[in-house]
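ok so I'm stuck.
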Amino acid sequence: MSATASRPTDPGRATAPRAERFARPLLIAFLLAAAVDLAGLLAGLDTVHLVAKPLLMPLLAGYAFVRGGPRLLIAALLFGWGGDVFLLADNDLAFLLGMGSFAVGHVCYLTLFGRDRAPAALATGIAYVLVLAVFLVLIWSDLPAELRVPVAGYSLLLTAMAWRAGVLGRYAAAGGALFLLSDALIATGIAEWPRLPAPDFWVMLTYIAAQLLLALGVLGAARADRP
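replied:
not stuck anymore, here's the structure
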């Protein structure tokens, strides 16, 4: 018997390639669901959005899982899915529950980013704080009174996540910034500010890109750290 034949098989090495076979189909399915959702929003087809939106984060989480992504990344994406589902209902309670689910996802992201000891850029952090402060001052009086404190707290958490995402590189940094932009677009809608044509399209476009870029940033960093 040869030395190669007698060597025991490493279960992790045998399993990983088998799982990664599904990575490309899952990513393609995610991109197709995103395209369908965005097309449905542009066409004003609410039923298409109701069907396609809940598929997005489970598909992206599945992609992250078969790529060997950290559990906190998968948890963040699934809490994002919870927020997506709650926000399909148009009432204040569903909005608060959705915001809470997203907030837990941001805590998962922050915990994940905190494992990297590299310092986040101080100048970027100051810029984010200034933008957040100006935005809250401008929008505060136009928000419903019962939503002001929850929106402010959530916005602070989201801003911290967006800033800290920069430690994992350009993809994650761009994802954090786009997540902040997407939620700012939602807040302007709640405050009944003037909005772009097809506002839900822009909210979903920036949100989908944000979650994808955050996932790619985390997966890229995890692969680089893997021996």
